[in-house]
Write a structure and sequence with these properties.
Strand order of the largest sheet: 1-2
Number of strands: 2
Largest sheet: 2 strands, antiparallel
Mean pLDDT: 83
Distance between the termini: 42 Å
Structural class: mainly alpha
Radius of gyration: 27 Å
Length: 632
């Protein structure tokens, strides 16, 4: 990260706003066009189109641990020549995938459930599929249906159900007699147990790391937004028009905030360590509202341009100070930067003439100085895996996946697919929700599989049959895939495809493995998309409907501000308005939006313009009210 000297008191370029005291730090990182900020710019563009890219979620430690988890059984399988140990390799990898963010007790229960149920599935699927010809065509959909219904009764059991469904279709794809099916199950048990011990005992990683990354991601995205406003105030483009960056920043910050909120819900049974993240969430919500109001001030050219720029710079500096203090290690003698930035915000607010700018500055200062919000009552630790009522949506999802698997097996018979369980796996992992989610996941899966298959083919041609280099490469690919799994699904699938193709080529040599993987994934992804289109299709609200909902939500926010409702009520309607706004912005770019934009494009543009102006106007009204009362 580039380091530059922090401007001395009152010396920010183009600003006449005085600083209350010199900065206690000699340096703070300044946000410019570094490679990581360019990556986040790409992430904002993709998120607006429903393709997630979260570079902050890269986890090197998890990747290294997964490489060890996969490398050990792979080495044993190659040294012994026992191809059945391939089940140990993939069991270890799937167990690492199953390690989702959660408190330690919940993670151990989820991993233990996957270990036990996966072993049973590996045996039952293989043994039952061998009872009569074509048994797998019937057994695969039945097992997946049962697994999804069972996991649908577990809180946050979606990933567990997906991975157990993957184990089921792979086991059905390897029909064996009782003895060999038992050997496969024992190999799965050995690999999953090894990975379980590695994750929980031998190489534990702090369970709160995902919360730290999610909190940091929110702060960084707020910093991106503040930096964009500074650039807008300093640059030549001061026409006051709406630019795409406004929607991108508003959406990406809101999504980061909601990711942090959902993670905090997952950690609800945790008793310690959550206070800083609850405070980060509350602070970020307030800062986000202030930045939206300031953003709208730039768009409408409200008040003094010099004051707007001063507020944007002060916010950027405060966010940098917040990042600096969060990164400080215990025992470091370096003074904290945030108290100085906080005093600077308070002094700036008193010197501003424009009520909007003053209100935004005060809101920022109050956000940083606010006490930790009270913790909600903790649920019981056992409640996370306790059975809950089965929802209608869960049953419909299970039926969709069952229908998709039937279609895949029919295609396997028709076209003679060499590895039909790969296509079945694609159905299970792609069909994860309504049309919007499945459409995006289908495209990402196909693209990642094709790229990964091409790269794997090239590596196999270059590497030949040399076992040691391929084993080292497979171990590396397993680590990279796990490290990137939460960053972007397409990139994850690229490395996942390369891993599966290379390991299969080593343990079960054959011709055209990479091509088969690509074709099977395309067929499975399309079958999943077909199932979600034909069975209870959930397209969500239409683009005009989402625009209308967004306008109504933002009008409710404006009315609550105008009526001087209590702060808690305004916070609730503000969040609802933000979510409705980004839903409308996203709907403009998803599948339905692309179709709708061919008809009535002018009306949609006017509707979105009204929504955007309402959202900004409501935010400005709230912060102007704060500015008017600053001396009270």
């Amino acid at each position: 990260m580039a380091i530059a000297a922090l401007p001395a008191a009152g010396q920010e370029r183009g600003s006449a706003m005085p600083d209350p005291a010199p900065a206690p730090l000699a340096t703070l990182p300044l946000m410019r066009r570094r490679p990581d900020s360019m990556l986040r710019w790409v992430a904002r563009r993709l998120e607006l189109r429903a393709f997630g890219l979260v570079p902050e979620h890269f986890d090197l430690a998890e990747g290294l641990r997964a490489a060890l988890a996969v490398g050990a059984p792979l080495t044993l399988a190659l040294a012994s020549g026992l191809s059945v140990l391939g089940w140990s390799v993939f069991a270890a990898f799937w167990t690492c995938l199953c390690d989702a963010p959660a408190p330690d007790a919940v993670r151990r229960r989820m991993l233990g459930t996957f270990l036990g149920a996966g072993t049973a599935m590996a045996f039952a699927g293989s043994a039952l599929a061998a009872l009569w010809p074509m048994a797998g065509l019937l057994l695969g959909p039945i097992l997946v249906f049962a697994v999804l219904l069972a996991c649908g009764r577990i809180a946050y059991g979606g990933l567990l159900g997906t991975l157990l469904g993957v184990v089921a279709v792979v086991a059905v794809g390897f029909p064996q007699g009782l003895h060999l099916a038992g050997a496969q199950a024992l190999a799965f048990l050995a690999g999953a147990t090894w990975a379980y011990l590695l994750i929980t005992l031998l190489w534990p990683i702090d369970a709160l790391r995902p919360l730290v990354r999610a909190s940091d991601a929110v702060i960084v995205r707020l910093l991106d937004m503040a930096e964009s406003l500074v650039s807008l105030g300093e640059g030549p483009h001061r026409d006051g028009a709406w630019h795409s960056e406004h929607a991108e920043h508003r959406r990406t910050v809101r999504l980061a905030v909601e990711r942090l909120r959902s993670l905090l819900d997952r950690y609800a049974v945790q008793t310690t360590g959550l206070a800083p993240h609850h405070q980060a969430l509350a602070t970020a919500e307030t800062l986000f509202g202030a930045l939206i109001a300031l953003d709208q001030g730039f768009i409408e050219q409200v008040g003094s341009a010099r004051e707007r720029l001063a507020v944007a710079r002060a916010c950027r500096t405060a966010l940098l100070a917040w990042m600096h203090d969060r990164a400080m290690l215990p025992g470091i003698a370096e003074p904290a930067a945030l108290p100085w930035a906080l005093r600077r915000l308070h002094a700036l607010a008193q010197g501003l003439r424009d009520d909007l700018c003053a209100g935004c500055t005060l809101a920022m200062a109050q956000a940083f100085a606010a006490p930790v919000p009270p913790a909600a009552p903790l649920p019981s630790a056992g409640g996370v895996l306790r059975a809950r009522p089965l929802s209608r949506a869960a049953v419909q999802q299970a039926l969709r996946q069952t229908a998709g698997l039937v279609a895949v097996y029919a295609a396997a018979l028709t076209f003679g697919l060499g590895y039909p369980y790969w296509a079945a796996m694609a159905v299970v992992v792609v069909l994860q929700g309504g049309v919007r989610v499945t459409w995006a996941r289908c495209l990402e899966r196909i693209l990642g599989s094709v790229l990964g298959g091409l790269f794997a083919s090239a590596l196999l041609l270059l590497g030949g049959a040399e076992t040691v280099p391929l084993a080292c490469l497979a171990t590396l690919l397993a680590g990279v895939a796990i490290a990137l799994r939460a960053v972007n699904y397409t990139v994850f699938v690229v490395f996942l495809t390369m891993l599966f193709v290379i390991v299969t080529a080593m343990l079960h040599p054959g011709e055209g493995i990479a091509a088969a993987r690509m074709i099977d994934n395309v067929i499975g992804s399309l079958a999943a998309l077909l199932a979600v289109f034909l069975l209870w299709p959930d397209f969500g609200a239409s683009l005009p409907g989402r625009i209308a909902e967004g306008i109504a939500a933002n009008r409710a926010y404006f009315d609550a501000v105008s009526a001087a409702r209590p702060f808690a009520e305004i916070e609730t309607v503000r969040r609802a308005a933000g979510l409705a706004s980004i839903e409308a912005e996203t709907a403009l770019h998803d599948l339905g939006g692309l179709i709708n934009r061919t008809r009535g494009a002018m009306a949609h543009a006017q509707g979105l313009g009204t929504l955007r102006m309402l959202a900004g106007t409501a935010a400005m009204a709230w912060h102007r009210r704060l500015g008017e009362n600053r001396g009270v």
